[in-house]
Amino acid sequence: MKNTKTIMFVLLAISWLVATSLRGLLIPLLAQFEIADSKVLGFNATTIFSFVLGVVLFFVLNRHQLVVFFTEQVIEELKKVTWPDKEDTVQSTIVVIGLTLFIATALGVYDYVWAEVTHMFLFVQG
After folding, report:
1. HSE, side-chain direction, 13 A CA sphere, residue 19
2. Domain residue spans in the chain?
3. pTM (two decimals)
């Protein structure tokens, strides 16, 4: 199996994201039901639960052959990608920012003109 360190890092990152997200969802849920997030050994119970879940998820993903195989295939495919060089990236970024500013300005002018037109015709006092 190639890319062992990269696969471990990816699976660890996935486990960390899931555990952190779960902790972020548990805290408001406990607050909604007015359940205190008690302290255990100086840590919040949600933190300990999320950490344990992350560790378990890491080991489950690490032992699952389809997950490891898929991750390895993704890494191999990403190695085949020809990434743009710095000059192409800068030029593309300038084009995107310029076009975004142009469209934002055009929509702002359009909005202002139509606001004035509708104000003239709808709010005529007489």
Report:
1. 20
2. 4-80, 82-126
3. 0.63
